[in-house]
Specification:
alpha/beta, TIM Barrel, 8-stranded parallel beta barrel, globular, oxidoreductase, proline dehydrogenase activity, EC 1.5.5.2, Proline dehydrogenase
């Protein structure tokens, strides 16, 4: 399969982000309550390292520990990022050296393999430890229809691969709309949607039924003047995008695996939400969401948009699936807003972001416990995990455990993943796959993210060291 050349936009995007087969099987401190007698779950135990890492090989622990400590060194991360951005990296021996180094370090730790077959083997290994997988073909931005069509084949093949894997070992297939819709068109659609929010009299003849995309507090400063309507060529390209997404949704329906749409920055997120919600209206039926959207809670308007979306879905009788995540483009968002003379759309403090994530999680847990829909809580934050467990117990775990998935990135927050799984919740790991060159932007984001943004990173290092020391002691004595 051919792969597209990565755009400079991706390589420049080096900001933070976060992204389930139950070993057993879903917002408020570490719960000491026991689950109902019908459930094997007991408590969320993040202290017993032998239990947490019992299914992880010593080789994996050593590699993970080395990478965790290396990523904690700011100067080392800065050097690695700089090397990938200099012109000499675009070809020659330096690129080969960096790619080889990446393949045996960051790539081996954070990616599932170079192709779908390798990813399948990683999923099987993970499934044996009691965790599920979110299968993510590593394509990101597409520049033209040819690239979109090639990327679509990668996503469709991902769905096909799930049919050969154990039932429920893959919880979701991930899609990035940026990979199946040309970036320029996404920007144009987002501009038109923002302008319609500013001026409701604007008619967009191409627009299908959707849920609310904006709240009153949503940023609209990206679109400074009235955009021109779509040209006939752009409308033709839009129809191609609709066809690609329809084909992917139908493929997921046939394979009985949900499709989860990843979020991007606010420059193009309105169009992504539009595609997601219009697809959800078409495919989500009978209390079984096929299409899941993503809400980034580091944005100030996140909770307001969540309330509007779920209210509209409920009114239309559409079961809504949503992933909650903190967010991935903080630096970019703040820089753009400042350049246009506006306040950042991102919460002013990390605690405000934590509070927003936890509030949205609590709301969604109550929503799915008492009605249709499902929620994915994608978090590496220990306290958020504890709060969600406590909320699940408060609601009655049996009411939400089939409607809730916890998620963490492959190679990160292993203690939290296994702790939640051991406590009886469904847990997935986000499993990107593809050639090293294709996944490079993803790897750069992981390196950037691991140097202190996540509250779990230091905790993981501590627990990994403790388990390695325990194994060494057992070996010696």
């Amino acid at each position: 399969m051919a792969f597209r050349v990565l755009s400079r936009r991706i390589l420049d995007n080096i900001h933070c982000s976060t992204a389930m087969k139950p070993r057993n099987t879903c917002h408020t401190s570490l719960s000491t309550a026991t689950v109902s007698s019908s459930s094997p779950a007991t408590t969320l135990n993040l202290e017993d390292v032998e239990q947490l890492f019992g299914s992880v090989s010593t080789k994996q622990l050593l590699r993970s520990s080395a990478i965790q400590h290396a990523m904690a060194v700011d100067s080392l991360v800065d050097l690695g990022i700089w090397v990938t951005k200099v012109k000499v990296f675009e070809s020659g021996m330096l690129r080969d050296l960096v790619t080889t180094t990446m393949r045996h370090t960051l790539y081996a730790n954070y990616c599932a393999g170079e192709d779908a077959a390798a990813a399948g083997r990683s999923i099987l290994a993970l499934n044996d430890t009691g965790l599920r997988s979110m299968l993510a073909f590593g394509a990101e931005d597409a520049l033209d229809n040819e690239g979109c069509d090639e990327n679509l084949q990668g996503f469709l093949h991902s769905v096909e691969v799930t049919k050969s894997l154990p039932p429920s070992s893959v919880s979701f297939v991930i899609v990035k709309i940026t990979a199946i819709c040309p970036m320029v068109l996404l920007e144009r659609l987002s501009d038109l949607l923002r302008w319609q929010k500013k001026d409701p009299s604007v008619v967009l003849p191409w627009k299908q039924d959707s849920f609310p995309i904006f709240a009153e507090s949503s940023p609209l400063y990206h679109t400074q003047k009235r955009p021109e309507p779509l040209t006939p060529e752009e409308e033709s390209d839009l129809q191609l995008v609709n066809q690609r997404l329809l084909k992917l949704c139908q493929k997921c329906e046939e394979a009985n695996v949900p499709l989860l749409v990843d979020a991007e920055d606010t420059t193009v997120q309105p169009a992504i939400d539009y595609f997601t919600y219009s697809s959800a209206i078409m495919h989500n039926k009978d209390n079984k969401p096929i299409v899941f959207g993503t809400i980034q809670t580091y944005l100030k308007d996140a909770k307001e948009r969540l309330l509007l979306t779920t209210k509209a879905a409920e009114k239309m009788g559409v079961p809504m699936g949503l992933k909650l995540v903190r967010g991935a483009y903080m630096s970019r968002e703040s820089k753009l807003a400042k350049s246009l003379g506006f306040a950042s759309p991102v919460h002013s403090t990390i605690q405000d972001t934590h509070n927003c994530f936890n509030d949205c999680s609590s709301f969604m847990l109550e929503k799915v416990a008492n009605g249709p829909g499902s929620v994915v809580l994608a978090t590496h934050n220990i306290e958020s995990g504890k709060l969600a467990v406590e909320k699940a117990h408060e609601l009655g775990v049996e009411k939400v455990n089939q409607k809730l998935e916890f998620a963490q990135l492959y190679g990160m927050s292993e203690a939290l993943s296994y702790g939640l799984s051991n406590a009886g919740f469904r847990v997935s790991k986000y499993m990107p796959f593809g050639p090293v060159e294709m996944t490079m932007p993803y790897l750069i984001r992981r390196a950037e993210e691991n140097r202190g943004v996540l509250a779990a990173s230091g905790f993981d290092r501590q627990l990994t060291r403790k388990e390695l020391a325990r194994r060494l002691k057992a070996l010696v004595f």
